[in-house]
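ARCHIVE RECORD
Type: protein–small molecule complex
Small molecule: zinc ion
Source of inputs: curated submission
Record status: active
Notes field left blank by submitter.
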Amino acid sequence: MIFPLLRRHFLEPLYIMKSGSAKLSYWRRLEESQFYSRNQLEEIQWSRLQKLWRFLWRENGFYQKQFQNAGLKENDLKGPEDIRRLPILTKKEILRQGHAMLSTGYQPNRLLNFKTGGSTGKALEILITEECSELRNACARRHDRWTGWEPGEQIGAVWGNPKLPKTLRAKLLNACVQPYIYLDTMAVTDESVQEFAKTWDNNKPTLLFGHAHSLYIVAKYIKRLKIDTIRPVGILSTSMMLLPHERTMIERVFNCSVTDRYGCEEVSLIACECEKHNGMHMNIEHLVIEFIREDGSHAGPGEPGRIVVTDLMNRAMPFVRYEVEDVGVFFDQDCTCGRGLPLMGKVTGRVADFLLKRDGTRVAGVSLIENTLTRIPGIEQMQIVQEDLDSFNLNIVPGKSYGHSQANELERYFQTLFGDSLRINIRVTDEIKPEKSGKYRFSICKIDH
Ligand SMILES: [Zn+2]
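STRUCTURE (tokenized, with ligand):
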């Protein structure tokens, strides 16, 4: 256990200091502020909201128009609730605006650019500064520790198309600063799970990390294959709905409690369970989180509402009153852990089945959607329905640049993964609606497996 300590206290701080990042000092502040009183935390949030409002007035053309259309003046922000006078920002609007949402002086080629997909089934381009990314990482680190993991310790990730270190520098960084081992959810087989277990045994990570449903599928493999070497101190489930039966199964197989986390690529971490599992603590230092009824009014405690978030940290491409397209509730009771961060619960969200190849390999729908949307431009939203081993229906909401070549590319990509005999039926539609329950099922497998 010397190496984790060396990484935590020496190698990582040295690396971060050399890069000039504020990540560690900011993380230390967040470690303290989680135990501030609710009032103190709301003060931080309010002060950041005022700064963001003033910034938007001066530096962002898109929001200047939004203010104008809503008949707002610069000094109209008298309290946090005044932000509700701005319209809700939809994914469609973000697609329509593109780089017109960037603030003055922020050049796309000087920002970190990433495309979303897997967490929503919808393709959005998000731009943030390096600094904003570091602040997000610092925040994630605080919440990672709630699982029992400590900085410097290895992480075992169940993830699609992992970015494996290729160059010597990347390999050194992985070994010395933040070591990860991976199980690729694009191809889950008995062999790949056994290999992962072997690597786990050699490296002894302490945290197991992945999408809820992927962790569940892997737990089923581990149970069937009678593997007993994967013994994490914490399990972090993220991005998707963690269904109660999945949680029970994962906890039994790994003999460890699951920490459920809620977030999305657009605004990063929204809320996370602590060690008491009384609900998820909202990240109110970074976000304003609203719960909205169908008629647009605000839901009361315990009452389900559409989740709308304002990111207080992203200046380059600000997200104000962004509709995540999930439903949740907030609670008005405090947590027994003593943290002042308020609690919420998720009611509905994203669910995605695993898909099945002819040779028995399982492919995580969430990873496949992410890969497809980032690989093939021009698709706004996508839903995969596997009818049987050789036939898929793909429901597509087309973007501006969607045409025959994208359809051919889609077909080729799926045939590369699932075999040449695969039949693909592409249905172009205006909208893919959530189910009656409110769940967004963007990957459906009709084969019993
Ligand atoms: Zn708590």
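CURATOR ANNOTATION: Residues 274, 276, 278, 281, 335, 337, 339 surround zinc ion (CB under 6 Å).
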